Amino acid sequence: MSNERKAVSAMSMTDSASRVNEAYEWLLAEITAFRLTSGAPLSENRIATQLGISRTPVREALQRLETEGLVRRTDNARFSVSTLTPREVNEACDLLEVLDTYIFVKAAREHDEAVSTQILEVVDEMMDAAEAGDKTAWSEADIRFHRLVNEVAGNQLVSETVKHTRRRIQRFWTRAASAQSRLVGCSAEHVELAKAIVARDTEAIPPAVQKHIGHMRVSILEKLEAASVFFG
């Protein structure tokens, strides 16, 4: 193969990956923001038309979301937005409790002064957003907090597992916790965790994580029970 043909092939592969990522990010945003609700059918043709791309990258994006548990195949092999069962909630929360504890303890041991400042700043932003009732700003700050701590912990495999697990259930938790009082309470729990990390207080981290995940678990389960018809 000539250099010119290799270059064209490489560009084609890059363009294809870009379209898959575009479809993936769009679908992820629609699902986590509840614009596509649990059980909603996902038409590859309709999504492709809406995004102005072919069906192939849409299907690849749906398959990627399927591995993350946000999308499932129906009996006729079509895709739909995944529902969530109480068992899945409990299993996900159990996993998050173990892995978050590991990540926060490791971050407490590995962080430096610059990171300490960033961690405290972002939890302050969370509290400000919670007190203002700004769910979007709160969610963005929450994502930055966990991304920062994961980066400091430095275990990519654990970080990816936590990210996918949290994403799968947090779309339900965010709706369940939309009341300002719950967002403020959750922010206070993040402040507690941040202070423990900055102080390198590894003994304070496990009970703080257990309390935080416990509240998340109860909120989601209550939401599922109260809206079982809506969630299918």
Describe the structure in your own words.
This protein is mainly alpha-helical. It is 78% helix and 3% strand. A hairpin with a 5-residue loop joins strand 2 and strand 3. The chain is globular and about 50 Å long. Mean pLDDT is 86; it is low at 6-11.
Concise overview:
This protein is mainly α and 232 residues long. The chain has ten helices and three strands. It has a three-stranded antiparallel β-sheet.
Number of strands: 3
For the CA atoms, what is the radius of gyration? 20 Å
Major beta sheet summary: 3 strands, antiparallel
**N-to-C SSE string, H for helix and E for strand:** HEHHEEHHHHHHH
Shape: globular
From the structure above, extract its key features.
mainly alpha; 10 helices; 3% strand; three-stranded antiparallel β-sheet; 232 residues; globular
Element layout with pairings:
Blueprint: H1 3-32, E1 41-42, H2 44-51, H3 55-67, E2 71-73, E3 79-81, H4 86-110, H5 113-132, H6 135-153, H7 156-176, H8 180-198, H9 205-226, H10 228-231
Antiparallel strand pairs: 1-3, 2-3
Helix pairs in contact: 1-3, 2-3, 4-6, 4-7, 4-8, 4-9, 5-6, 5-8, 6-7, 7-9, 8-9
